[in-house]
Design a protein that fits this description.
Shape: elongated
Strand content: 15-25%
Distance between the termini: 63 Å
Helix content: 25-40%
Number of helices: 13
Number of strands: 24
CATH architecture of one domain: Alpha-Beta Barrel
Largest sheet: 8 strands, parallel
């Protein structure tokens, strides 16, 4: 239906080669508002609409597919070797828009990160919040709409930054969206409120996506088409996927099917795409343990926690890391497409708080022990060091990496980040080796291959015997270079000041400027 004129245009079944799909015989002009009427019922928006200027319950609008892209030479980035900065649109700028965020992309690039991970841009009702339902294909109009996202991505690529979008599948088939009129998009079970979620509409449950039941072919195609739209039409480089919302028990798990499709699309477009896989309690484990070590310096139980974490989260590549069953099956089903799957991440606290699966209890705990007001810059430097050099791709936040860097302390954190990101390729090259953890009093040493991180976790300086490291080991980065020294195999550490040691050929990156 065309709301302005009341005109009704017929749809017809496509045919046996696409059972259940309907098409119109004519294309609508760019800028036309339209709705669907299923079996003569009340008009509803197009579930695959990219542009919804009237809100999630109003008519859809036809978007001009042409955009003056300037990123023709962009081929993507290896997100496994670099680092991402989480851009939470509502809080990143006072305006809370994509165009306002784009103004800071040059500052983001100055931190040395590979790209940005953008919080969900899918359209939702501002009065009820995204948990009440999101339109996956559409860009939220208060953020600037679809054109603003295209401008953001194009500008990011000009600055050498990849763009990863957070895909809020958790709320994609919420009851209020009315997708049941089109087919069995929702399964019988539901995703309950986030564990510890605050009361109110934001904590309401939502139906699960129907990925393995009767009629699941349609919902699977819906999600694949959504992913293709962002990668192809909006030039984004990857998607962040919530494991919990994509659970299925089919012979070919959806995650594997999606990875295979994204792999083929990348080959066709000659671009590198990535799917980052995350979920509740996965990417925050390292930062949680480091927080606890800083809170209880010299506690050997905390060091044991770090040792166990090293074995569980950062095992040598030949070993098989723990993954949820659906993710394990997906990896087996998508071996050819494994180059697009990035399944182990490490998030800094604010980057973890702003993802859809974070609970209110986790948010309160992070605020209590390491929020922006409580954490010192020394603590931030410690967390940055472990997160960036641990091996798994890190997602940083603007509490630890201030953007823009407007004063001396912010510039120091940015310089430290740039130094660590420069060292990351060397550390990542040793992913096939085990992590070794050693403690001496309040001093801690973590080593994998050529790279070692040392830290005096207490409030007093400490010394650490590093004579067991290779003879050509040298100090390459220190948060407090004036108070740090390496003499005759003994490392002198200022309190709570991380140090990076490297064996072998000199690294390109050096100590951060004070």
């Amino acid at each position: 239906m065309l709301p302005e004129t009341g005109e009704r245009l017929p749809l017809r079944l496509v045919g046996a080669h696409e059972p259940g799909y309907w098409r119109a015989d004519a294309e609508l002009a760019v800028g036309t508002d339209y709705t669907f009427s299923i079996d003569g019922r009340e008009p509803v928006p197009d579930p695959c609409s990219t542009w919804m200027p009237h809100g999630v319950d109003g008519p859809s609008r036809v978007l001009d597919p042409h955009f003056p892209w300037s990123d023709g030479d962009w081929r993507g980035a290896d997100l496994g070797l670099g680092a991402l900065l989480r851009v939470d649109l509502p809080s990143f700028t006072p305006e809370g828009t994509l165009d306002a965020a784009a103004e800071h992309l040059e500052d983001v690039a100055a931190t040395g990160v590979t790209g940005v991970e953008v919080s969900p841009v899918a359209a939702f009702d501002p009065r009820r919040g995204p948990a009440a339902g999101v339109r996956l294909f559409a860009v939220h109009e208060p953020f600037g709409g679809p054109r603003a996202l295209q401008r953001f991505v194009d500008r990011a690529h000009r600055h050498g930054l990849a763009v990863v979008l957070d895909a809020p599948h958790r709320w994609a088939v919420a009851d209020g969206l009315g997708l049941h009129a089109f087919g069995p998009y929702a399964a019988g079970s539901r995703i309950g409120p986030r564990t510890g979620a605050r009361p109110g509409p934001a904590g309401s449950d939502s139906p699960r996506l129907n990925l393995d039941g009767s009629g699941s072919r349609g919902p699977r195609d819906f999600l694949v088409a959504d992913a293709e739209r962002w990668l192809r039409d909006f030039h984004v480089d990857g998607l962040l996927l919530d494991v919990e919302s994509l659970v299925d028990r089919s012979a070919v798990p959806f995650l594997g099917e999606l990875a295979e499709d994204v792999h083929r699309l990348g080959e066709r477009l000659e671009r590198r795409f990535s799917l980052l896989v995350d979920g509740p309690g996965r990417s925050d484990r390292l930062t949680t343990v480091v927080h606890e070590i800083l809170a209880a310096p010299g506690d050997d139980d905390r060091a044991q926690d770090l040792r166990r974490l090293a074995q569980e989260v950062f095992p040598p590549i030949p070993e098989t890391p723990w993954r949820p069953p659906s993710l394990r099956r997906a990896h087996r089903a998508a071996q050819r497409a494994s180059s697009v799957l990035v399944s182990d991440l490490t998030r800094l606290p604010a980057a973890n708080r702003s993802v859809p699966w974070t609970s209110a209890a986790q948010e309160d705990a992070e605020d209590a022990r390491g929020g922006a007001a409580a954490a010192t810059d020394d603590d931030r430097a410690c967390l940055l060091t472990f997160a960036i050099l641990a091996g798994t791709p890190p997602v940083l936040d603007t509490e630890h990496v201030p953007v823009p860097a407007s004063d001396a302390r912010a510039r120091r954190l940015v310089a430290w980040t740039r130094t660590l990101v420069g060292l990351r390729p060397v550390a990542s090259a040793d992913r096939d080796l085990a992590v070794e953890i050693r403690t001496e009093g309040t001093a801690l040493l973590g080593r994998r291959g050529r790279t070692a991180v040392a830290l005096a976790t207490g409030t007093e300086p400490a010394t650490l015997d590093v004579s067991s490291l290779p003879d050509d080991t040298r100090l390459v980065a220190a948060w407090d270079p004036d108070g740090t020294s390496l003499v005759d195999g003994v490392l002198h550490l200022p309190a709570r000041s991380p140090v990076v040691l490297l064996a072998g050929e000199p690294a390109q990156a050096g100590p951060a400027d004070r």
